[in-house]
Design goal:
The structure is a single chain. The chain is an alpha+beta fold and about 450 residues long. The protein has two domains: about 80 residues; about 260 residues, q2cbj1_9rhob like domain (Jelly Rolls, Sandwich), CATH 2.60.120. Helices cover about 45% and strands about 15% of the residues. The protein contains 14 helices and 13 strands. The strands form three sheets. A seven-stranded mixed sheet has the order 1-2-11-8-13-4-3, covered by helices on one side. The protein has a three-stranded antiparallel sheet with strand order 5-6-7, with no helix packed on it. Strand 5 and strand 6 form a beta hairpin. Helix 2 runs antiparallel to helix 3. The longest helix has 23 residues. It starts with a helix and ends in an 11-residue tail after the last strand. Bound molecules: fe (ii) ion. The site of fe (ii) ion has 3 residues, from loops.
């Protein structure tokens, strides 16, 4: 029986058989994107197969610099549409690609066609399609029509907070006259999961599935991932030595590139033993299908200094920066609420791993504040100037999501994991007497296009 299943799975995946395609799949799963693109192209050249083109599309759009790859992705979508037509999932994906085109180049008519087609095919049953069309209408400044689209998406799925937020923020900006009774979010906590790394073997399958589901949109905290022993102490010493040489006046972030090799090795040890081998398999949806996680692009070290009580500016032993005075940034938050990968068209798994090396949290040291409810689309603060469509003032994002956010209290060696769209920010308060050091890692795994397009 097992042998039969193995063969049926094998043939299901690889018929019509093509050596280039089989090789390309292996390369794609190992995150060798450039090489897999070549192989998929070759496979598609010999056999104009819909699945081959979908995989080529997935490999081509797997790079995370969307600005660099979006033109190629759109060209492949165009070919897909012309040769094979498209179903709802494709049209939604194609529409999302257009939403990722920078504002100056955004072609609303193209996105309009895509989302309208998706709505037509599914008879308006998918919240995500209406949300996409709402984004187009909002960009066109057809605000009342945008509100209608967002309302329709809420009718399809009452938990679609992005649509609620868009209506509320358009009302706050004076673009529409009715807020349809939508208020800022009132409570959360349901989606914050908190595990002890020492209990990893005891965590039930059910919890793992739940964690994966929540990870996609929510937040998980793992306690005691790195033991508080001499390794952690020596790691911190290495980090302090390195970061002392770095100019924090602008970003408070020290990159991988300039780090000494001893430090790189120590952090790599954590990545190999704890992140790659233990946590990623647990929280990655695609791990069971053989997709290897891809670290993107590397790691950063973050240093958050103490807030000086008298001057109310953040001050450390290396620099002083009045972060609280940055326009549009509420006092108490060193960064605006943001998402780490606010890209519409990439469906692959994504996790940010945030590792604190100091005790932190309210009244202790600067920590992070995270949203704990599902969110499925980019919401960009206007002040970040990312050039994406329908950016919103950071303070409106803060007000709407405020009650649904948690200020994490964590100890050295704890890891916080969240998905690509999870809104979060650094926070500090005047009672904090200590600075905080942390490591920030991002990982991706799985195909870039929706799994339905790959028949997975
Ligand atoms: Fe971030």
């Amino acid at each position: 029986m097992k042998i039969k299943n193995f063969f049926s799975k094998f043939f299901y995946k690889y018929i019509p058989h093509n050596a280039n395609f089989v090789n390309a799949i292996k390369l794609l799963k190992a995150n060798q994107f450039g090489l897999s693109v070549k192989e998929f192209r070759e496979a598609y050249k010999h056999d104009k197969n819909k699945k081959y083109l979908a995989y080529l599309l997935s490999a081509s759009s797997s790079f995370h610099n969307v600005a660099a790859s979006i033109d190629e992705t759109i060209n492949l979508c165009r070919e897909y549409k012309e040769v094979f037509g498209g179903d709802r999932v494709f049209w939604n994906f194609y529409g999302r690609c257009w939403l990722d085109v920078c504002e100056k180049d955004f072609l609303a008519d193209e996105a309009d066609k895509c989302f309208s087609k998706a709505i037509e095919i599914s008879e308006g049953k998918h919240a995500d399609d209406w949300y996409g069309l709402g984004m187009v209408r909002q960009f066109q400044q057809r605000y009342n029509e945008a509100a209608d689209c967002y309302l329709k998406s809420i009718e399809c799925d009452s938990t679609f907070v992005e649509s609620q937020f868009r209506i509320w923020s358009m009302y706050q900006d004076g673009f529409i006259n009715d807020n349809f009774g939508i208020e800022p979010l009132k409570k959360s906590g349901k989606y914050l999961m908190d595990f002890d790394f020492n209990d990893l073997d005891k965590i039930s399958r059910r919890e793992v599935i739940e964690a994966r589901k929540i990870k996609e949109f929510g937040t998980i905290v793992f306690r005691n991932v790195i033991k508080q022993d001499c390794f952690l102490r020596s790691l911190k010493e290495e980090i302090l030595t390195y970061t002392a040489t770095y100019d924090y006046n602008k970003s408070f972030i020290a990159p991988y590139d300039h780090a000494p090799s001893v430090l790189k090795k120590k952090i790599q040890k954590i990545i190999d033993n704890k992140i790659f081998n233990k946590l990623l398999p647990l929280v990655s949806e695609w791990n069971d299908n053989g997709w290897k996680p891809f670290q993107n692009p590397s790691w950063w070290l973050q240093y958050m200094p103490v807030l000086d009580k008298e001057s109310q500016i953040l001050t450390g032993n290396r620099s002083t920066t009045p972060l609280g005075e940055i326009v549009g940034r509420p006092s108490g938050y060193a960064t605006p609420l943001h998402q780490d990968n606010p890209v519409n068209c990439q469906f692959s798994d994504w996790q940010t791993f945030w590792i604190t090396l100091d005790e932190c949290g309210p009244g202790i040291a600067p920590s992070i504040r995270v949203l704990t409810i599902p969110i499925r689309s980019p919401i960009d603060p206007l002040e970040e100037e990312l050039g994406r469509i329908n950016s919103v003032k950071a303070n409106l994002i803060s007000i709407f999501f405020d009650k649904a956010m948690v200020k994490i209290k964590a100890a050295p060696g704890d890891v916080v994991i969240f998905g690509r769209y999870m809104l979060h920010q650094t926070f500090y308060d005047s009672n904090m007497a200590l600075p905080r050091n942390s490591i920030d890692l991002r990982w991706v795994t799985g195909p870039s296009v929706p799994k339905e397009m790959l028949y997975l």
